[in-house]
Hints:
binds beta-D-glucopyranose, 14 helices, 8-stranded parallel sheet, alpha/beta
Amino acid sequence: MNKLLRFFAVIVGIIQLGTAAGLPSSGGKWQGFERGMGIGGWLTNYKRFNVLPENKRLDLTVGDFEHFDSFITEDDVRKIKSWGFDHVRLGFDQIVLEEAPGKYRERTFRKIDEFIAWCDKYGLNIVLNLHKSLGNYCDIPEKIQLMDDEILQNRFIALWLEIERRYHDHPDIAFELLNDVRDVDPEKWNALADRAIRAIRAKNRERWIIVGPVAWNNPPELPSLRIWDDPKVVYTFHMYAPGEFTHQRGVLKDWALYWNQIVVYPDKNCDRIKHRPDPRPFDKAYLASEMRNAFEFKRQHPDKILWLGEFGTIRHAPKESRINYMRDVISLAKEHGIPYCVWNYLSTPNDGNRFSLVDDDTREFLSEELLKACLGE
Ligand code: BGC
């Protein structure tokens, strides 16, 4: 090799150290992350923020810490594995891990350490998901906006670097940058996600990094999400359509409270849901149409991994309907080669939107049929 060629080879090598561009493609498959269980209600959604006055929302109280110390235990992790799930998606909030800029909470990080050790023991893969960051609480209005505030953005990046530092020796843990990105300018979110990816890549070439689109990770926004030339970036979306069914009689949304209506799935008779301008019946064809942008994404980017990171139904939706819904969403995902993670294991009674799949006391699946549906059987 002449000197010039050798010089270029060295430069390319240096550039690739900071990217994952040289790694082999996954071929669009995410081994070990095919059917997952979401864990909310523990380090996120631990209480109903929207009834607290604004100046009290970001406080952590003695009761909150007691909850973090006790809500999820080794036995929960053991059960999730024994049912047949292969990964867990652990949601946590920024304030639960970060006391002040650059000052992290050892007490709660220790809970994550323990959780990781339990997952290692039972053989579950892990997604760490920043569920509520400062300036991006998905279900309450806020004055500060992550996408417009450089100081918050720096804290966001610093938190991920801290997580990378702590879990650097756990190469298989996936980092999901931000849950339910609000309805912000997609370019602002693409730019922040890009910064975070570059920062993490500079420390770890192989880390799985998960990014979803704006507007609560809804499928219609997938086309506005940047595509990275990086086989270790995973793309995600959420599926909650039809909201009238999945969020029925929920206490966080005014319309759900107002209509206060029991909705079944499937339902051919949508006239019954009088407030609904869309006349289509609720059935598998309806779900397929709501997920069409995800299928299109897979068609356009067969080598990229697209993961359905969240979907589910409120706990008090009719039992049979919950099973039917999970079965149909999962069968559509599987037909299109999309791995998935159900939402969620257990919500606390004081979370606004209880999407629990297990019983509060026994922590057993609410029914054998629901478990089978969630496993895609
Ligand atoms: C949020 C969860 C919430 C769920 C049901 C999702 O978009 O990420 O925190 O529990 O919606 O409302």
